[in-house]
Amino acid sequence: MTHDFSAAQRARFRALLEEQREADRSNAFAATRNMQLISDARQDSSTDDEHDPEGVTLAFERSSEAAMVQRSERGVAEASAALARLDDGSYGLCEECGNEIATARLEARPATTLCIECARRHGA
Ligand SMILES: [Zn+2]
């Protein structure tokens, strides 16, 4: 079973996925750079993180940047995987139940691998 997309739809999903991948790539890049800046700031201050309020703030900021890097890198990977599925014809099919994923859902989340029913079952 394959999703019956028109050439225009496929081109549109490809553009959406490439856009997402680019955005996530630059987010990952920016967050990685921010982490480096924060590390540098911590080394400069040479204070004890546990007791210095600024150190705690920097540690918190660093961990939110780290989470951003992770999220963005996952986004890049998901977009790449979805682009590969566009090429091999499995794009738009639910990884779990094999049903077609609604086009409206793909428009909103082009890299999704689950149909709405399976996504709800996973609580995502
Ligand atoms: Zn499903």
Give your account of this protein's structure.
- The protein has one domain (7-121): DksA, coiled-coil domain (Four Helix Bundle (Hemerythrin (Met), subunit A)).
- The mean pLDDT is 91.
- Helix 1 (7-45) runs antiparallel to helix 2.
- It has four helices and no strands.
- The radius of gyration is 20 Å and the shape is elongated.
- The chain is an all-alpha fold and 124 residues long.
- The structure holds zinc ion.
Mean pLDDT metric = 91
Tally of DSSP β-strands: 0
Contiguous uncertain segments of 5+ residues: none
Global geometry: elongated
The figure for the number of domains is: 1
Largest sheet, in brief, is: none
For this structure, what is the CATH class? Mainly Alpha
| Distance N to C terminus | 25 Å
| Share of residues in helices | over 70%
**Structural class, judged by helices and strands?**
mainly alpha
- How is the CATH topology named? Four Helix Bundle (Hemerythrin (Met), subunit A)
Question: How many helical stretches?
Answer: 4
Order of helices and strands: HHHH
Bound molecules: zinc ion
Report strand %: under 5%
CATH architecture: Up-down Bundle
